[in-house]
Amino acid sequence: MLHRLAARPLLGLVPAALLLLAACAPAPIYKPSAMTVAAAPNMVAQDPQHYANADVIWGGRVVEVHNFPDHSEVEILAYPLDSSQRPKVDGHGGWGRFIAVTPGYVESFDMPAGTLITLSGRIVGSRNGNVGQANYVFPTVSVSQSHVWTAAEMESGHSNVSFGIGVGVVH
Fold it and tell me: Considering the entire predicted model, what is its pTM?
């Protein structure tokens, strides 16, 4: 009987601990609009007309930057986003590629290949191109906002606490 009474106060701590861990995760940076669709770039590439003028919140790794006289185009390999809209690159395959079009000049030195980015924008069409020797359809997004993630931001909100049975090694 005493054992059961001692365990009761601990039961109340479990929900509080879970809420505390959830509070550590940063809030999403972009609020979806009524026009925001939850389709991945590879889905949009299959039927671009169906998604014309839809808003998206996408993210991933920068592949390369191309600058033109009045705008820049950033090719991005898309990944799913976590609850804070950070690209989830570990253990996830890419969701296809897309072209982010932004007015003005994007300094490729500030956004080298591999940089993690999340953006919000509107699908304005698609473009045929190549990835290596393969033909590819790139959805094109007119960017309204973008955020380049730092290593510290990618780590913030990731708890170092885990539950389980067994042996763990931390590097």
Answer: 0.77
